[in-house]
Amino acid sequence: MKVLVLDGVAREGLQKLENEPGIVLDITKTVPEDQLIAIISEYDAVIVRSATKINKKVMSYAHKLKVIGRAGVGVDNIDLDEATRQGILVVNAPGGNTISATEYTIAMMLALARNIPQANTKLKNGEWDKKAFMGTELCTKTLGIIGLGRIGSAIAKRAQAMEMQVVAYDPYIAEKSVISTDIELVDLDELLERSDFITIHTPKTKSTRHLLNTEAFSKMKDGVRIINCARGGIVDETALYDALRSGKAAGAALDVFEEEPLTNSPLFELNNVVVSPHIGASTREAQIKVAADVANEILATLKGKLVKNTVNVPVIKHDLIPELKPYLKLVERMGTFQSQMVTARVKKIQIRYSGDFFKQTDTLTAALVKGFLDPILQENVNYINAIVLAKERGIVIEQTSVSMEEGYSNLITVRVFEDGCESSVSGSLFQGKPRIVGVNGYRIDSVPEGHLLIIPHVDKPGMIGLVGTVLGENNINISGMQNSRKEAGATSMMVISVDLAVPDEVLAQIKQAEAILDVKMINF
Ligand SMILES: NC(=O)C1=CN([C@@H]2O[C@H](COP(=O)(O)OP(=O)(O)OC[C@H]3O[C@@H](n4cnc5c(N)ncnc54)[C@H](O)[C@@H]3O)[C@@H](O)[C@H]2O)C=CC1
Ligand SMILES: O=C(O)C(=O)COP(=O)(O)O
């Protein structure tokens, strides 16, 4: 396995990956796109910071790529939709640089309030100019935090220690989960109207692009100061420039820009703007932590283990992994089972989870759909792209969760709706091992391994003997057998586990019998 490490990711954090037998690490600085395209096809994994863009074009050359690791938080330099489409896992290292980015934001706020960079430059240029640098205190001022996640909430704590009033806007946070009762959660307009300092800590998304635009500036207090150490483009740079020129804003501190790297901007000409080249996470401690975190994730992915900091698939909590593993195996097998039962065009797959699935049903559904599509499609299907591939084929995926039913503490039922017909399979765990416990409403108990014969037939004497004789005559050993009926004399369901794949002619021989309604062989 080969891993390409770009963008100056800290080598000290990569030791675990470097020492792993069978893994070769190529560590290099940021390379231009054409150079990346020329080499990317060799690699199973790539690790980047924010400089390298892993876009659709780069991915189209990345034939072996299984995982993209971001040694940091923001993944806006990675085309997530394309990665998902191609079944490439994207992982990041979200917690490792929180403190560094937080401390840096506080430093920027203080630098802005007290004109430290400007005073530093002037004095080093030989001017002792005390009068030019009248600052403002932070104590009692209102700090508006947009985005109260890891960094936003760590900033709130520190700002409160400096006796600032903290208001925050984050529509994705419930009031009760806010870390301190002294943080007032408000709507965006109120934050804009009340804040003396506004700092941004959201990701860059469609909804945060130009969140601070001309209209937003018009709602702010005169003399507001803006800090952006999150992502360029959340503040509209033209609107900010106009606000600074007009005196609406008294200053801005920016670590990030719409285009990076950036060495020339009208904003750089304004004396009340403090800038830095995206160095919020650039501390030794943060870089070692994020490199080590992402190395662990890459290692887990390449070894086929479950990973926790996934960006383009649902996150699985680390402590749930052992509990979830047998369920993942179960649902994948159920998907494989169902795809081999299909006889017409599939319109919808409906999954019903009964019991407690640790709030991980999205992950289980992805595994089930992977199991369903794997035997059908030629392309690589995995947990990452399974749902997208199903949707591309017009297959609707529905899932519902209900509490315990039918006496099983955990029961999963999959119904597949085809043109003109439908089929279902139910599964559960017995002593931690996957079991198929129902087929088309018939109760059975079969282990989804090897080969299963599914034989609906008329409920009458001699049927088991008939099938057993044909298999025996063809030297096929039966390792398990179940027969189930809903009512006497109607239809029964025979499910037989066999040691070998049953040849087509033997299946045809069984099917010939008048009371045999169908024969399907399911291979796992
Ligand atoms: N300058 C630098 O070097 C660094 C920048 N960052 C950036 O800082 C930002 C925050 O990072 P974390 O706190 O670790 O992320 P996080 O995911 O913990 O927090 C982001 C918060 O933003 C909120 N949010 C999302 N959309 C929103 C919207 N439309 N309006 C208001 N709130 C919204 C989310 O609910 C979440 O609470 C990210 O953009 C990250 O890339 C992070 C580390 C270093
Ligand atoms: O983690 C993040 O989101 C950052 O912005 C840090 O970026 P960097 O790794 O320093 O290029």
From TrEMBL:
Q: Name one GO molecular function term.
A: phosphoglycerate dehydrogenase activity
CDD domains (alphabetical): ACT_3PGDH-xct (cd04902), PGDH_4 (cd12173)
Going by the UniProt record, its keywords in alphabetical order are: Amino-acid biosynthesis, NAD, Oxidoreductase, Serine biosynthesis
Record-annotated ACT domain positions? 452-524
Q: Which InterPro entries match?
A: ACT-like_dom_sf, ACT_dom, ASB_dom_sf, D-2-hydroxyacid_DH, D-isomer_2_OHA_DH_cat_dom, D-isomer_DH_CS, D-isomer_DH_CS1, D-isomer_DH_NAD-bd
Which E.C. number(s) belong to this protein? 1.1.1.95
Which EC class heads this enzyme's classification? oxidoreductase
Per the record, the pathway is: Amino-acid biosynthesis; L-serine biosynthesis; L-serine from 3-phospho-D-glycerate: step 1/3
Q: Tell me, what does this protein do in biology?
A: Catalyzes the reversible oxidation of 3-phospho-D-glycerate to 3-phosphonooxypyruvate, the first step of the phosphorylated L-serine biosynthesis pathway. Also catalyzes the reversible oxidation of 2-hydroxyglutarate to 2-oxoglutarate.
Q: What protein family does this chain belong to?
A: Belongs to the D-isomer specific 2-hydroxyacid dehydrogenase family.
Which named protein is this? D-3-phosphoglycerate dehydrogenase
